[in-house]
Amino acid sequence: MKPVTPLRWTQTGTTHHGAVMTSMERGGGEPLQGVHLLQRATTVADRWLILCTALLITGCASYLALRPAGQRAIVQRDNQTVRTLALDNNQQMHVEGRLGPVLIQVQDGRVRLLEYASPRMIGTRSGWIATAGSMVACVPCGILIRVEGGDSVPTRSDALDGITR
């Protein structure tokens, strides 16, 4: 096993503003740069963790970017389908919710809850949804909007989405 030489910071000069420039060197005086600095500052486990995290982030970003666009929006009130809206027709419509009328807007292939009588307006702040499988809901009003279509897997109302023991 090679002996580990200690690292030290050395002054390499000054800038025209008078700031001191430093570099990290090994005991022999050679500056550490790029890969050598990364190898010295991290362990093998750290590098594997960085690699796995980068791959996970890349995979999630690819999945989200490549999801198919929806073709229709299913509007439900208390788990009963009230309307089916085509996302290629720009329109606004009212649906009666538990707390009063809910205005739903379809524009440019996307849909959103526009206005309604809800205490916190969380559904409105959720914004536009357009990709297959996306949902927005107003729980106090009992309204759920789900985007379907594209190449998404068809959903069934009696399908399991989880198991609890």
Distance, first to last CA: 53 Å
Secondary-structure-based class equals alpha+beta
Number of contiguous helices: 3
* Percent strand: 35-45%
Helix content: 10-25%
Large-scale geometry:
elongated
Mean pLDDT: 78
Which spans have pLDDT < 50 for at least 5 consecutive residues?
Answer: none
Number of strands: 9
Radius of gyration over C-alpha positions, nearest whole angstrom: 28 Å
SSE ordering = EEHHEEEEEHEE
The neighbouring-strand order within the major sheet is 4-3-9-8
Q: How would you sum up the major sheet?
A: 4 strands, antiparallel
Task: Characterise this structure.
The chain is α+β, with helices and mostly antiparallel strands and 165 residues long. The protein is 21% helix and 36% strand. It is built from 3 helices and 9 strands; from the N terminus they run E-E-H-H-E-E-E-E-E-H-E-E. The strands form 3 sheets. It has a 4-stranded antiparallel sheet. Strand 5 and strand 6 form a beta hairpin. The longest helix has 22 residues, at 44-65. The relative contact order is 0.13. The mean pLDDT is 78.
Give the helix/strand layout:
Elements: E1 7-14, E2 20-26, H1 34-41, H2 44-65, E3 72-77, E4 80-86, E5 91-97, E6 100-107, E7 110-115, H3 122-125, E8 135-138, E9 143-148
Antiparallel strand pairs: 1-2, 3-4, 3-9, 5-6, 6-7, 8-9
Keywords for this entry:
alpha+beta, single chain, 4-stranded antiparallel sheet, 36% strand, elongated, 3-stranded antiparallel sheet, 165 residues
Briefly characterize the structure:
The protein has 165 residues and is an alpha+beta fold.
